């Protein structure tokens, strides 16, 4: 169901983080400071993603036929653990959307992070940052950049 390796090759427990689409785009296309901060932040974490993030992040590069950018995205996604967007994720997303007036993709991202028992959810979406989530720490650019 969920592929989530929370131990590194040496068997050491690692925190898991789900990056929403804006953070993945920032990692690939952001300015040097953003990319460096995010790479440092991710260096000791298991990175979780979903096919929805992959679809959203790669869309513009596909549309504009930016092959080099597509290779960067594909390289990033090749090292992620993917969370299946199954019925449980959709049910939780429905509740999150109804209770917090979220857009459907945002509710799915958040539900995927929660259902996978993710430790941290990394976003820069101001609406998502306002949603209170138990057991999942929400991180944004300001926190990553030390602001």
Q: What structural class do helix, strand and pairing data support?
A: alpha/beta
Provide the CATH architecture. 3-Layer(aba) Sandwich
Q: Can you tell me the CATH superfamily? A: 5'-nuclease
Determine the CATH topology.
Rossmann fold
| Strand element count | 5
Number of domains: 1
Provide the residue-averaged pLDDT: 87
Tell me the strand percentage band: 5-15%
As residue ranges, the low-confidence spans are: 1-10
| Estimated radius of gyration | 15 Å
Distance between the termini: 37 Å
Per CATH, the class reads Alpha Beta
Number of helices: 8
Q: What would you call the shape?
A: globular
Percent in helix: 40-55%
What is the element string, with H for helices and E for strands? EHHEHHEHHEHEH
Can you describe this structure?
The chain has 147 residues and is α/β, with parallel strands linked by helices. It has a single domain, classed as Rossmann fold (3-Layer(aba) Sandwich). The chain is 54% helix and 12% strand. It has a 5-stranded parallel β-sheet. The longest helix has 14 residues. The protein is globular. It starts with 14 loop residues before the first strand and ends with a helix.
């Amino acid at each position: 169901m969920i592929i989530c390796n929370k131990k590194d090759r040496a068997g050491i427990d690692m925190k898991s983080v789900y990056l929403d689409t804006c953070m993945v785009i920032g990692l690939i296309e952001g300015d040097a400071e953003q990319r460096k901060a995010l790479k440092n932040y991710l260096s000791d974490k298991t990175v979780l993603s979903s096919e929805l993030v992959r679809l959203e992040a790669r869309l513009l590069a596909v549309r504009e036929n930016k092959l080099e950018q597509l290779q960067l995205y594909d390289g990033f996604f090749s090292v992620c653990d993917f969370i299946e967007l199954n019925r449980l994720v959709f049910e939780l997303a429905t509740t999150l959307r109804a209770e917090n007036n979220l857009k459907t993709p945002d509710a799915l991202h958040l539900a995927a992070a929660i259902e996978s028992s993710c430790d941290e959810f990394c976003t820069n979406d101001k609406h998502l940052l306002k949603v209170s989530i138990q057991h999942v720490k929400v991180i944004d650019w300001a926190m990553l950049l030390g602001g």
